[in-house]
Amino acid sequence: MHMADALVAPAVAGTMYVLSTAAAGVSVKEVRKQASPEKIPVMGVMGAFVFATQMLNFTIPGTGSSGHLCGGMMLSALLGPYAGFLTMIGVLLVQCLLFADGGLLALGCNIWNMAFYGCFIGALLIWKPIMKKGASRVKIALASILGCVLTLQLGAFSVTLETLASGVTELPFSVFLATMQPIHLAIGFVEGLITTAVLIFVYEARPELLWGVGETSEKKEGKLSLKNTVIAVAVAAAVCGGVVSLFASAFPDGLEWSMEQVAGTSELEAEGGAYDTAAGIQETTSLLPDYAFKDSESAVGTSFSGITGSLVVVLVTVGACYLFKFFKKNEAD
Amino acid sequence: MKQIEDNIRELNKLQNLQQRSHWMNRLHPLGKLLVCVIYIFVVASFDKYAFDKLLVMAVFPAFCFIVGDLSLKDGLYRMRLILPLVLFVGVFNPFFDRKVLFSVAVAGSQMAVTGGVISMLSLMLKGLFSVLSAYILIATTSIEEICYALRILHVPKIIVIVIMLIYRYFGLMGAEADRITTAYMLRAPKQKGIHYRAWGSLVGQWLLRSMDRASAVYESMTLRGFNGDFRVKRKNVSATDFLYPFIWIVLFILLRHFY
How many degrees, rounded to 5, is the angle at CA A62 between CA A58 and CA A63? Predict the structure, then answer.
């Protein structure tokens, strides 16, 4: 499922780098908070272990073919989501540099498609809730198979979206999706079975090595902190501005359409000194006319405009809120 | 078993290349990393129909392979892993995009070349250039040096240490995987892969041994003064270290916008 550099456009690669960096930032912070330097060598050696096990072939019963392990879910079950995510980043970077499996430009996409889903969705939304009241063979099998299948499906879906957003293929979305999802359903199931076998062995030999088993009394955070809310909004804005803006309709909006129907044009001409002055000021100050770089029609310009626009709106809104708060406080005093 | 042997052989080959006393190996790793990333970025930014313009970007790999005494065969061999997905994505373009861009005279008759054919060729070329560029980087720069460059770029040290450890232990783990597979195959001849009954015990035992090895590694690192910090020997910067990335980056921009 490794994406190659040729399959991603710079705008898509940049957006995915931003998202993966945000997830890596959270992970680094969480691992530092745990303050356990002994975990670092474990992460390194486990990364090398996963890398090496990917080269072993496992016979798939009844088919005559063989499959191999990807390891994201297994790493999370042993190291936890944050340390597992950082380890997967290391594995993906080394794979891309040493064996050209993936690419430097596509690294952000690959981290998101393979490490993010495997470690965060797999560990936090599947493994942890299932293991909350203790582990058993059935629970491990359920969490491993469900986790591997679901995270691989999400990863394959992201590959389809990223490739189509990059505009490198003429394949229709439905055909691409119909090819990617079933293949990865089978791969996910086989990986789930292998992960189950290994984790059940670990559970029976050294159960204390499994992460998140029997953790019922974790502190509950009722509200999102201001910082987390700001980060979440910023990431959502970057995604909408950077990726979704690429799919913005080229057709006129409702108002423009109505004007076109009534006046025959979507942009009314106005004459007079005041109009000319205003138009001149607008032309000089508009850095990104028509949501693109000046004299350019590249998709990068659209994404850049989207992200810049979101950033400006967020800054103005936050500034206005603080001003409002300042005046309210003065009134109260 | 062949895949493990191939990977170990490829790793050893890369390590030998990285240890050469070539001037390209002595360049500052940050400059080489930036040139590689910017080159891939520029190549990926070309329009899907700009096959002719994209061809000019061959100057960088051509220069590095000739001047750097690198094997093109080894570089091309690295395409094998990304080729299936790139092929799958690109091979359907000629069927869906039938817009005729130009015609070519072949044996007296005119052959129409469609947009789909051109976009497919562009995709292959982009894949080839990006793989070759990454090969140039890794063949002339060790992982330790790349990690050093990543630290200069403020990549968190925990990620950098993990990358270095993965690289250092991969050789060891690869050799162990090779031994395990050989031992298993000798006991189960003519069997394709590891039988499902042995999945848990075989990999599980190996996993537990690796975890114990990680503890031993941590203890030995602590005894040698490891406190979670990452120290590397600073590299001296020469004029060539500035000139190399500067010239290439200016050339990439010129080729991208003015050719």
Answer: 70
Of B166, B193, B214, the CB nearest to A94: B166
- Other Cβ atoms closer than 10 A to B28: 22
Q: Which residues pair with A66 in a beta bridge?
A: A59
**Per the CB < 8 Å rule, is A168 touching B48?**
yes
d(CA B162, CA B178): 23
- Which residues are paired to B110 by β-bridges? B105
What does DSSP assign to residue A333? -
Q: State the nearest Cα–Cα gap between B107 and chain A, in angstroms.
A: 30
* Of B130, B161, B167, Cβ closest to residue A103: B130
| Interface contact flag, B81 A2, Cβ < 8 Å | yes
- What's the pTM value of the predicted model, to 2 decimals? 0.75
Tens of pLDDT, residue by residue over B100-130, are: 888 888 877 888 888 889 999 999 999 999 9
Could you tell me if B137 lies within 8 Å of chain A, comparing CB atoms?
A: yes
Closest to A201 (Cβ–Cβ): which among B89, B164, B200? B200
Measure Cα distances from A314 to A47, A217, A237, A309, A320 in Å.
39, 37, 9, 9, 10
Please return the burial class of B79, using the count of CB atoms within 10 Å of its CB with bins 0-12, 13-18 and 19+. middle
Q: Which chain B residue shows the shortest CA-CA distance from A25?
A: B156
Q: What is the mean pLDDT of chain B?
A: 87
Q: With contact defined as beta carbons under 8 Å apart, do B65 and B72 qualify?
A: yes
Q: Tell me, what amino acid is at A263? A: A
End-to-end CA distance of chain A: 61
Give chain B positions within 8 Å (CB) of A69. Answer: 203
Q: How confident is the model at residue A249 (pLDDT cuts 50, 70, 90)?
A: very low
CA dist A205 and A212 (Å) reads: 17
CB contact under 8 A, A170 and B92: yes
Give the distance from residue A331's alpha carbon to the nearest chain B alpha carbon, in angstroms: 45
Q: Is A262 exposed, middle or buried (0-12, 13-18, 19+ CB in 10 A)?
A: exposed
What b/e readout covers B57-74, taking b as 16+ CB neighbours within 10 angstroms?
beebbeebbeebebeeee
First-last CA distance in chain B: 48
Which ipTM value was assigned to this complex? 0.88
Place of tokens 């804005």: A237
Q: What is the mean pLDDT of residues B174-180?
A: 83
Please give the helix or strand (H or E) that residue A211 lies within, else none: none
What pLDDT score does B80 carry? 84
Q: Which residue has the tokens 């990690």?
A: B147
Residues B44, B36: Cα–Cα separation, whole Å: 12
When pLDDT is averaged across residues B123-147 and rounded to a whole number, the result is 92
In this model, does residue B134 exceed pLDDT 90? yes
